[in-house]
Amino acid sequence: MNKQFSDNFKWGVATSAYQIEGAIHEDGRSESIWDRFASIPGNIKDGSSGAVACDHYHRWEQDLDLVASLDLNAYRFSIAWPRIIPTGRGAVNEKGLDFYDRLVDSLLQRGIEPCATLYHWDLPQALQDDGGWANRATVEAFVAYTDAVTRRLGDRVKFWITINEPWVVAVIGNLWGQHAPGLHDPSVAAQVGHHLLVAHGQAVPVIRANSPGAEVGITLNFTPAYPASDQLTDRLAAAQVDLFTNQWFLDPVFGRGYSDGLWHSFTANPPQIQPGDMETIAVPTDFLGVNFYSRSVVRHVEDSQPQFVQIPGATYTDTDWEVYPNALYDLLLRLHRDYGAQKMYITENGAAFSDQPDANGYINDEQRRAYLENHLAACNAAIAQGVPLAGYYLWSLLDNFEWGEGYAKRFGITYVDYATQKRTLKESGKWYGEFVRANLPVKV
Ligand code: GCO
Known about the structure:
The protein is an alpha/beta fold. The chain has one domain (10-438): TIM Barrel, CATH 3.20.20.80. Helices cover 38% and strands 15% of the residues. Strands 1-2-3-4-5-7-10-11 form an 8-stranded parallel beta barrel, surrounded by 6 helices. A hairpin with a 4-residue loop joins strand 12 (414-417) and strand 13 (422-425). Helix 8 (166-174) packs antiparallel against helix 9 (186-210) and helix 12 (326-337) packs parallel to helix 13. It is globular, with a radius of gyration of 21 Å. It starts with 9 loop residues before the first strand and ends in a 5-residue tail after the last helix. The model has no long low-confidence stretch (mean pLDDT 98). Bound molecules: D-gluconic acid. The site of D-gluconic acid has 11 residues, from loops.
């Protein structure tokens, strides 16, 4: 590979609070909507929750040692709102801030840049009891939470993501009901999506005020939709899926507003939009966070919803996502050329495969290693075409709580034996460390 990665490229790995921390009752943390959702039988496939997860709240130092052992220069984590403002609004829990304070200082001591996500889905349950993200007041609560966090950490954290994957929150959590809070309401989903974007826009200036010189952005998930054939009907079906899946949040963030045809594809009630909202949402940011895993292939079905088809002979991950790195290349070029994205980071990319230690305790996860190599090659090729890609955060450092799938799906480059909490670096993790070292600037 003709290496295109810049000398200051961010080589990272990503996690999120609810998926790894555990300690859900410790040091003043309150109940989150995921604690509540997981407590309802049937919501999590293996009946588990994030109550213990990877016990990262107590084992965070050894986990940071893992990051350092790979010579990574960046680490993306999320901050648990229920630890910071347990009632959702009002009093700040200093012990909650203290945990992230220690984490940030320890990262910096290791020469690893902290990248903090403010909202990775774990809303305080108290706010959900008050309508959650469908209630406009939650926007103000998020801004106050952002203020509290960035006042404490903004002198040392200089890379902030406001919201992780608002589409997943709106659709999977509020339309399909497969994520917290488990609602099936199209109107609520549309309003939740809008308020998440407004919250993003209102949080940016607060972050800038409390964290001078920081890079601030939002992370969106993308699943590029390809037509199953060149037939016009399939191309139109793919365009409809692309609008709902990828353009819904991308367009307003880039100042294009909501595209025509979006709302009636899934709701009779477009969201209530207040004067100035669209300008707030399009607030200038420093980067776009791109979460990419796979693509979809779409076939038109007469008088019915588009059909998602599998490709004979293609490789699929344990979550049944096609391995198709060219879609990442295509996506990055589209975001740069069609939307004018001036700077991007891959804030998540990775794959679940059913890993198990061999007789010697090694986890030879060749499929994941190949997945990473091929997607990094796609990033490299995109950069060669002028795409301003400035970093890559692999999902994930650890096997962890994979939301509705529980612990059955392993995305980590580190194997976690949940019975003992023993961490074992997988062969893919060792490979990633070698790949990064080969791309780091030569120390003179
Ligand atoms: C997401 C979330 C992660 C997931 C990962 C695998 O992108 O859905 O940010 O928390 O665990 O993507 O699904």
